[in-house]
TrEMBL record:
<dbReference type="Pfam" id="PF00850">
    <property type="entry name" value="Hist_deacetyl"/>
</dbReference>
<dbReference type="InterPro" id="IPR023696">
    <property type="entry name" value="Ureohydrolase_dom_sf"/>
</dbReference>
<dbReference type="InterPro" id="IPR023801">
    <property type="entry name" value="His_deacetylse_dom"/>
</dbReference>
<dbReference type="GO" id="GO:0004407">
    <property type="term" value="F:histone deacetylase activity"/>
</dbReference>
<feature type="domain" description="Histone deacetylase">
    <location>
        <begin position="1"/>
        <end position="142"/>
    </location>
</feature>
<dbReference type="InterPro" id="IPR037138">
    <property type="entry name" value="His_deacetylse_dom_sf"/>
</dbReference>
<dbReference type="GO" id="GO:0040029">
    <property type="term" value="P:epigenetic regulation of gene expression"/>
</dbReference>
<protein>
    <recommendedName>
        <fullName>Histone deacetylase domain-containing protein</fullName>
    </recommendedName>
</protein>
Length: 191
């Protein structure tokens, strides 16, 4: 996502929203909540950095407080989603806290967002570093996007610490900061 963010950093025609692990904890060290674009593109880069162990409740909070309102206000012609299973709780690169079932919820949220553009959504599924989670995670995401109900097993149960999102409070703080940074750019975030 960092290369894509850099490419569109000054472009007001593309709204780039990125949920990713806090850059203080992972290479390449970019994607802070105050990195919002520049020039004509100011406000069109929306970085949502999440602390390690962040779980689904935080993701859903970011969707409800930031992503859904921005999508409504920006009203894109098309939604292009890029990402894979690296937020999986046992991924070998990142330390986020999603389960396989949570990827379905991401797909469901993207399907809901795409209603503003007549359901036009392209998904560039990629990434993930826990090979046992890639297949089930991608399938779960696709099922959410396509509204397909089939059971998908977790490769292994998530540890107890992920039953309740341990980073929800910090995520709410990050969203407050993000809204402060973007309030002059978007009516929906100025409330």
């Amino acid at each position: 996502g960092n290369g894509t963010a850099e490419y569109f950093y000054q472009d007001p025609k593309v709204l780039f929203i990125d949920l990713h692990q806090d850059p203080r904890t992972l290479y390449p060290g970019t994607g802070f909540a105050n990195q919002i674009g520049e020039g004509k593109g100011k406000g069109f880069t929306v970085n949502c950095p999440l602390l390690p162990d962040t779980g689904w409740d935080s993701y859903q909070y970011v969707f409800e407080e930031v992503i859904f309102p921005l999508t409504e206000e920006f009203h894109p012609q098309l939604i292009l989603r890029n990402g894979g299973t690296d937020p999986y709780w046992d991924d070998k690169l990142t330390q986020l806290g999603l389960t396989i079932a949570d990827f379905r919820k991401i797909g469901e949220n993207v399907r809901e967002m795409a209603k503003v553009c007549g359901g036009k959504e392209i998904d560039m599924i990629g990434s993930g570093y826990k090979k046992e989670a890639i297949g089930p995670g991608w399938l779960s995401l696709i099922c959410g996007l396509a509204d397909i109900k089939i059971p998908i097993d977790e490769p292994e149960p998530a540890p107890q610490r992920f039953q309740k999102d341990p980073r929800y409070k910090e995520t709410k703080d990050m969203v407050r900061e993000l809204k402060r940074n973007l309030k002059d750019c978007w009516r929906c975030l100025s409330k």
